[in-house]
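G., the chain you wanted modeled:
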Amino acid sequence: MNSLNINSIIRFVVLILTQALLFNHINFLDSVNPYPYILFILLFPVNNNRTLFIFLSFMLGLFVDIFSDSGGVHAAACVTIAFARPPVLKFAFGMIYEHQNIKFNNTEFGNRVIYFLILIILHHLILFTLEVFNISNILLVLKKTLFSSVFTLILCILISILFSNKQQ
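Predicted structure as tokens:
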């Protein structure tokens, strides 16, 4: 096992545990819930096995569902953003993605924020749509998506900055 695989395993376990033990208990104004566990999907190495990546994304969501007692909504949202990741990477990073040599620590900050934001909003929109599952509550879904996405984006950026500096 190389250090990249070990880092991915550690990131997987730590993000699930912090989500379950800390972030699941934050519920501000009944519509702001942070979900920084999706950093695992956002920062997963680009040139790895796609089937393994989709499976790990499903397992990530499933474990969060088990700890949250949420019936599969996290797994569905995680698998969806795992599938949507390649076109979002191409949109956010362009030619760097085409050559399969993205190192997230070395990318432009603005590109990274755009990439994070698109996948976070997509994840939260699917998550809250499945959670509420009622078209008459579309405003509630949009409100929860907006506020939780902003909070999650800020946390993901802070966490990625904190831990990328320690590795350098």
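The mean pLDDT is 88.

Shout if anything looks off.
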